[in-house]
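From the shared-data thread, chain only:
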Amino acid sequence: MHKLDYVSPIGVIEITGNADGIYSIMFVERSNPQYLRENETPSVLLTCHFQLDEYFSGMRQEFTIPYILDGTLFQKSVWHALTEVPYAQTRSYKEIAASIGNEKAVRAVGMTNGKNKISIVIPCHRVIGSDGKLTGYAGGLWRKKWLLQHEEKFK
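Structure, as tokens:
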């Protein structure tokens, strides 16, 4: 497993993966990058780093990097549904539950959303409460708000 840090406008993001794909893209609570590009850094991590750079500069709205999901069939269905939420738009947990054909699974959708390890690429930041309020984000609500405002600026 290889790691590569990306320094974003809202903190360091640690990218983890191998030659086959990305396992995680997670905000970490350190101010300086720890994992830098090395000769053996797989190209998929470098591509992810580049695509994150394009996203944060407003030039990318969709990601094309391969990623590897580790979860149940239900979790994978929720994460797939998140990728269907268009750039600069939001959906409620209830709407995500309905989109996977299980309207009563709102709480389970929320729990699964919180277990998403592919931040930004699988846009769990675009899921909000039914009342329109920002709720839960592993990277912190301030980052969720920033990401939504960022996308609104470049839509």
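The first helix runs from residue 43 to 56.
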